[in-house]
Amino acid sequence: MAGRLKGKRVLVYGGGTGIGFACAESMAREGAAIFISSRREAVLRQAVERLAAHGPAGHAAGDATVAADVERVTEEAADFMGGIDTIVVSAGAGGKTPIFTTSPEEFQRIIDQNLRPLFLAVRCAAPQLLQAGRGSVIAIASMYSLVGQYERVAYCGAKHGVIGMVRAMALDFADKGVRVNAIAPGFIETELSRQIASQEPDPEAAMRTRRAMHAIPRSGQPDEIGEAAAYLASDAASFMTGQCLTLDGGYTAR
Predict the structure, then answer these.
(1) Residues with Cβ within 8 Å of residue 103, at least 6 apart in sequence
(2) Contacts of 125 (CB under 8 A, 6+ apart)
């Protein structure tokens, strides 16, 4: 239903590219005002040019793991949109972390890059969300929030933590009109995922392997995650909180 997010004011962390941008674009098409943030100013400017074709769109660069940056971005977003009632947190990081060889510093980097943005984004915007009265927080988790994986102790730990945070925050907000949910994507074919595969000895073989690991033998597309985010932000999901919407092509069903 077109226009189902008319009047919504959405702040997206990690909104310049990939899944975050797809969420922003899907919501913009449904009538929401959008404000995006990530570290790279040039990327944000290009993304906003595309989003502005659908309606109001602004941006501010910042590091989602730094409290001062998140406070500033939150203030700029609220000023631009006249408030905030929806937050999407798509910032994060991964990497191989076998338990046998991973340094404490690399473990901590991945934990911080995945958990701090969600905590800071919601903590800083909580007054805006409460003032709005009908709000939605959407955390981009992973299928590895639900299962383990070889050589991914930090990433699995962090993404499992995202689900725990979502459930706890959902209870904190439940009687205050704000819902908190997560999306757990499988392998999504983005510019970044293709870039990572390009570093393999046989990039196309690496992509085929990633596509085939789902029960539905293909990769997911960013716009599929964007559509799920738009649903979670809409009033159609008004009785849904503390949940993880899994779009993984059946990976975790095995």
Answers:
(1) none
(2) 11, 74, 78, 84, 87
Measured in residues, the chain has a length of 254
pTM above 0.85, yes or no: yes
**Judging by beta carbons within 10 Å of its beta carbon (0-12, 13-18, 19+), is residue 167 exposed, middle or buried?**
middle
Per-residue pLDDT tens digits for 135-163: 999 999 999 999 999 999 999 999 999 99
Q: In whole angstroms, how far apart are CA 46 and each of 28, 36, 51, 227?
A: 15, 11, 9, 21
Inter-residue contact 121 to 71 (CB < 8 Å): no
Helix H or strand E encompassing 184: strand 178-185
What gap in Å lies between CA 41 and CA 147, rounded to an integer?
Answer: 35
Closest CA to 113 of 161, 147, 49, 57: 161
Averages of pLDDT over each 10 residues, the chain, 254 residues: 89 97 98 98 98 97 98 98 98 92 97 97 98 95 96 96 98 98 94 77 87 93 97 97 98 93
The residues carrying an active-site annotation are 155
